[in-house]
Amino acid sequence: MCGIVGYTGPKQAAPILLEGLSKLEYRGYDSAGIAVRDKDKEPVILKAKGRLKMLAEKTNNGEAVPGNCGIGHTRWATHGEPSELNAHPHKSDDLCVVGVHNGIIESYIEIKEKLIRKGYSFQTQTDTETLIKYVDYYYKKYKMGPIDAIAKTMVRIRGSYAVALMFKDYPGEIYVARKESPMIIGVGEDESYIASDVPAILNYTRQVYYIDNMEMARLSGGEVTFYNLNGDVVEKELKEITWDAEAAEKGGYEHFMIKEIHEQPRAIKDTIGSLVNTDTKRINLESIGITEDEVKNINRIHVVACGSAYHAGVVGQYVMEDFARIPVRVELASEFRYRKPILCKGDLVIVVSQSGETADTLAALREAKSQGIKTLAIVNVVGSSIAREADNVFYTLAGPEIAVATTKAYSTQIVAFYLLAAEFGRIRTEITELQYQAYVNEILTIPAKVESILDDKEQMQRLAAILSAQDDIFFLGRGIDYAVCLEGSLKLKEISYIHSEAYAAGELKHGTISLIDKGTPVIAVLTQNSLYEKSVSNIVEVKSRGAYVCGVTYYGSYSLEGTVDQMTYIPKIDDHFAASLSVIPLQLISYYVSLARGLDVDKPRNLAKSVTVE
Ligand code: M6R
């Protein structure tokens, strides 16, 4: 959940580190620090509590710090409060080893006790200081080289980490190791970079190596050597990043979130285009490597994910069950991984993740694989751990998503489910050819319909102004509308800090309706024709208890005018795909409420974009 960068080469390192960190701030932003070496002088460590700009001010954007080799870190605190002391880099007392770390060292207490017995003392509350001092201990005790000392440490610690280290005796060199936390290594002319994520180095290079789990690397200028735990050299292929650098910038928008909301028509179109031939209007599963025979033999589907990706799975469940008549169970990855899931031959486990690094989702994927179950990942980040470990991958083409609150990744995930559902339904002859064609045609209309909602967003701004003063907001819906409400509610609480709950409308009278009082805001989503009247009854129930009701439904469906307080209309679409449209007003409402409350939209408190710890 933190961001790491590193540079070694002919250029001044500190400005590169700070620029790289600015692209990783979404991963953590409570403190930041850099360690830079000028030739064979000792590293200079500079840190600041708070946003990266504090460190940038302290160092004149890095210009004031000489040296061509350095590492940097932006932190999301796990062990120890956010403070300058706990900020990375951490060091051994004589500066022999200096390092930054992303992840958690689970066994840090026992290691710390051992090191204290050996005469080490600790200044911070972090697990990272323990890790650095453990490497230092082996390095000195056995007078071994950095790679051997790191390997010895790696086999003795428990946890997840991406770590970058500099050794006093090895100027111009950076050593890295990885277990389950993301890290890439970029290479330029006579220079190399490390980063937790691609945007940090996109301005400098597109040539990258993916370091695997339990591997280490040594970077020295443009030379990168990989090692396994035995210290043997591992050969790796250089890969090219195809992302456009501009995609990771705000491009004139005030926030990444609103930019990413506006990128949805393009992201959805690209994701559809990756599987649908727009001339023949047929879906082709070849690119994700699933055969027709495999589809015919699926008995059950388990969708496993966290947060919004889980909500996308809830939408997917409704559509897949309806089209393909395969039983689908959607589960939170943090629950799935620990409940000894019963998986059988013929089951397919679909994991969904934007980052491809979410610790619980990755663990769930591994659990399924360990039981010999076929896995499919719907994932956005190319080369991420989940993408690399799943049997089959369906890449959503959302492009880099920077705002902590996901929007375009969620939208592409639900579209991915529609495509799987329609194709599975066709293959299993659960839908007719005519239905199949009609569904594909409807899916192809989504980008333009999303665009038209975005063209008309002023109404959401007005509504947000009213909602921004509230303490509790409820979301109500049935079926797919309920699935969208889950996402709308998470979006709102995540960035506005307003308490919010999503309820299946039929559940209200089983308890929650007691919370409805005069003026309580309720956002009701009504797109499912077969459930419309039922939902209207629930709206009337809350309205008669004084709720302030805002409805979201299709153009042409005007019967609620006069009953509810505000209506928002979206273009008509086949009900199965309504989530793609109804979620847009909910995203916009959250964005504008957060803005109206003067909050940091892209970097909400206590959160990070990529949850690589459980
Ligand atoms: O990277 P992932 O899709 O695996 O992340 C899962 C959740 O952490 C994520 O969707 C989270 O809920 C979002 N911040 C919600 O906007």
Looking at this protein, list some descriptive labels.
binds 5-amino-5-deoxy-1-O-phosphono-D-mannitol; globular; 27 strands; eight-stranded antiparallel β-sheet; 614 residues
What's the main sheet like?
Answer: 8 strands, antiparallel
Helix content: 25-40%
Radius of gyration: 25 Å
In terms of DSSP E residues, the strand content is 15-25%
Q: Give a list of the ligands.
A: 5-amino-5-deoxy-1-O-phosphono-D-mannitol
With helices defined by DSSP (H or I, 4 residues minimum), what is the helix count?
18
Sheet/helix structural class: alpha/beta
Which term fits the overall shape? globular
Low-confidence stretches: none
Q: Strand arrangement, largest sheet?
A: 3-2-4-1-10-9-11-15
State the end-to-end distance: 10 Å
- Counting DSSP E segments of at least 2 residues, the number of strands comes to 27
Taking all residues together, what is the mean pLDDT?
Answer: 94
Describe the structure.
The longest helix has 22 residues, at 433-454. The protein starts with a strand and ends in an 18-residue tail after the last helix. The relative contact order is 0.09. With 614 residues, the chain is an alpha/beta fold. The strands form 5 sheets. Strands 3-2-4-1-10-9-11-15 form an 8-stranded antiparallel β-sheet, with helices on one face. The model has no long low-confidence stretch (mean pLDDT 94). It contains 18 helices and 27 strands. The structure holds 5-amino-5-deoxy-1-O-phosphono-D-mannitol (M6R). 5-amino-5-deoxy-1-O-phosphono-D-mannitol is lined by residues 306-309, 353-355, 358, 361, 404-406, 490, 494, 610-611.
